[in-house]
Sequence to fold (116 residues):
Amino acid sequence: QVQLVESGGGLVQAGGSLRLSCAVSGSIFSINALGWYRQAPGKQRELVATIAPSRTTTYADSVKGRFTISRTSANNMVYLDMSSLKPEDTAVYYCNAHTISGSDYWGKGTLVTVSS
Fold:
């Protein structure tokens, strides 16, 4: 099993920055990719960013150039550094771990609210 706990959410003004953290524990070496997803009110959960073991990253078009995903070498922490935040970035952000066997694990989420 993999356990994920997010932290770092809060209220920030448009144009500001915030770092989200995800603490990873359990069967860490079963993890293939790590990522961040978000869900805004009334919308589907969407991919924000992913990072592979090779440290190859992917980003949603809406956050490219503004958000950066990173991880520690031990895969026990995943970060999402957000800058130039916009009101439309307001959402609950979820940490995700995708295992080698194809299972997905999720944190309970952390709320980011961007005011204008």
Observations:
- The first strand starts at residue 2 and ends at 7.
